[in-house]
Amino acid sequence: MWAPPEPGGGYGLVGMRERAALIGGTLRTRAAADGFTVVLRVPA
C-alpha cells in the first residue's frame, strides 16, 4: 500500500536533483502558467 513520504525523506525536487547529478544528469524546474515544468536529462 502506498503511503505519502515523510518530511525529509528525499522524495522532493532537491532529492531528484541530487540523484540526477549522481549519474551525470541534470534536473531543471521552473514555474509554468498551470503548475511546474520539470526537465530531467540523463546520459544514455
UniProtKB/TrEMBL annotation:
Species for this entry: Nonomuraea corallina
InterPro entries tied to this protein: HATPase_C_sf, Sensor_HK_TwoCompSys
This protein's UniProt keywords: Kinase, Transferase, Two-component regulatory system
E.C. no: 2.7.13.3
Identification of the protein by name: histidine kinase
Reactions mediated catalytically: ATP + protein L-histidine = ADP + protein N-phospho-L-histidine
PANTHER family: NITRATE/NITRITE SENSOR PROTEIN NARX-RELATED, NITRATE_NITRITE SENSOR PROTEIN NARQ
Keyword GTP-binding: no
